[in-house]
């Protein structure tokens, strides 16, 4: 089946970047805020110099040899959804937005738990998203429990796999207890991925380094999200940012494999361009996207599953800019074969979610998926052309071949203006997306968790809220 292929780096270029990243790790090293993680690395043969841990090439090479080449990803009920490492893109909404933009509003607001539930139900119904994410941070929930409370809502209202993350050291084991409550074989058949982010340049915070250690110990897939900001937290050149990005991800892979050889890890990232005039972190800038495409080739060189922040927008409204940025990056994600692509629904530098944009991005992701799928050889095509042209057997539109093939061959968007201009005035595409989101929220019945599994999950949630001396709110 012919399909489009996108490659940026040659094998020699990948090996050169890898060599420079190793040089950084051996000479500059990584600073660890958490001294327990630092001690663990020193106890495992790494060296401390000038307060920074130096990573030897042989230690990195051994870690890369032990990291899994493929990670099967399941849904909440144990059904296989995809195998990460095979290059079939799973789109999921961008995670951890602190604002939501309502239809008709020009200013985003603080989201509530109900907004998160609505978003989860909407994403559950949209076929372009094969996975969920803990996409909103509910403002009324105490800071000490925000991360785990988000996971609870997704587990309760959708069966799709989840991309999530912890904001604290203390809550990550409890969040894994939530997974265990839903399905005891969460290690053998993983259905949640946790993001962990080094702090550029070449640092790991206490929370993220401890989270990475705990994830490896508990057997939960960790997505290592390096975030070089070109011109701010990394060199301004694309090449320099790629080298730094690779060094940071290599440090995370090495940590995970030292904790537990074979621990599932995903090579990820969220590079940005730090705008020289406004200081904003622009994730859809061409330079940031080039870093993302380059590290995709690096990950593939080492046969590692790969993630990217793609299919999102830096715009402040669901407008032409939002559509253009989401579409071009989503198509790149699918054609380049990212295993996980996070970002749809997002606006304003990864800080805002929009239900209407999710509906529109669903169409974008489905179209990107269709382009990436390519096409198969049609052995009947020549005969069909002969029949229509020479034998005058009707036309292509009415031909039985068209009736038999069009559903499998054509992607027909639901919320997209592809009809002819009529007498009746159509609503704007944004208004149409709003109506579709509201229809789904009225009509879609999500596969809610129930029975013993919900009771077990509720008991873990109760323990979570006991940490702040409160009872869990109804949701």
Automatic annotation (TrEMBL):
Gene3D superfamilies: Trimethylamine methyltransferase-like
The protein's name in its UniProt record: Trimethylamine methyltransferase family protein
Keyword Iron assigned: no
Classification via InterPro entries: MttB-like_sf (IPR038601), MTTB_MeTrfase (IPR010426)
Domain of life: Archaea
Database matches in Pfam families: MTTB
GO biological process, one term: methanogenesis
GO MF, any single term: methyltransferase activity
Keywords carried by this UniProt record: Methyltransferase, Transferase
The family this protein is said to belong to: Belongs to the trimethylamine methyltransferase family.
């Amino acid at each position: 089946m012919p399909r489009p292929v996108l490659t940026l780096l040659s094998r020699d270029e990948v090996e050169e970047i890898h060599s420079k990243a190793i040089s950084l790790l051996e000479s500059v090293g990584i600073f660890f805020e958490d001294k327990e993680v630092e001690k663990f690395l020193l106890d495992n043969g790494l060296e401390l110099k000038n307060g920074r841990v130096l990573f030897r090439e042989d230690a990195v090479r051994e870690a890369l040899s032990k990291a899994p080449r493929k990670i099967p990803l399941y849904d909440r009920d144990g059904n296989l959804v995809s195998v990460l490492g095979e290059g079939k893109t799973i789109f999921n909404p961008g995670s951890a937005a602190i604002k939501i933009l309502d239809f008709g509003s020009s200013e985003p607001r603080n989201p509530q738990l109900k907004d998160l539930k609505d978003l989860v139900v909407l994403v559950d119904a949209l076929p372009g998203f094969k996975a969920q994410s803990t996409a909103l941070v509910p403002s009324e929930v105490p800071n000490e429990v925000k991360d785990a409370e988000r996971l609870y809502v997704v587990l309760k209202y959708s069966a799709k796999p989840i991309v999530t993350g912890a904001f604290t050291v203390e809550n990550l084991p409890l969040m894994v207890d939530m997974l265990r409550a839903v399905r005891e074989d969460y290690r053998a058949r993983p259905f949640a991925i946790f993001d962990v982010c080094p702090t550029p340049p070449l640092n790991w915070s206490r929370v993220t380094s401890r989270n990475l250690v705990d994830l490896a110990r508990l057997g939960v897939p960790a997505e290592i999200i390096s975030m070089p900001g070109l011109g701010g937290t990394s060199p301004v050149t694309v090449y320099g940012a790629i080298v730094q990005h690779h060094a940071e991800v290599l440090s995370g892979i090495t940590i995970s494999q030292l904790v537990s050889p074979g621990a599932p890890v995903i090579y990820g990232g969220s590079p940005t361009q730090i705008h020289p005039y406004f200081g904003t972190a622009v994730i859809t800038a061409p330079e940031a996207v080039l870093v993302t495409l380059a590290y995709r080739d690096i990950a593939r060189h080492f046969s590692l599953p790969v993630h990217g922040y793609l299919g999102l927008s830096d715009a402040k409204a669901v407008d032409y800019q939002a559509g253009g940025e989401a579409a071009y990056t989503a198509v790149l994600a699918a054609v380049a074969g990212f295993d996980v692509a996070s970002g749809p629904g997002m606006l304003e530098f990864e800080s805002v979610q929009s239900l209407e944009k999710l509906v529109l991005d669903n169409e974008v992701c489905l179209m990107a998926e269709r382009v990436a799928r390519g096409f198969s050889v049609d052995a009947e095509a020549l005969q069909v052309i002969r029949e229509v042209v020479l034998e005058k057997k009707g036309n292509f539109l009415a031909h039985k071949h068209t009736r038999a093939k069009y559903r499998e061959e054509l992607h027909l968007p639901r919320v997209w203006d592809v009809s002819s201009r009529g007498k009746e005035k159509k609503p704007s595409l944004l208004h149409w997306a709003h109506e579709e989101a509201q229809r789904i929220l009225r009509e879609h019945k999500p596969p809610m968790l129930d029975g013993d599994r919900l009771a077990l999950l509720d008991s873990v949630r109760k323990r979570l809220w006991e940490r702040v001396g409160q009872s869990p709110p109804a949701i």
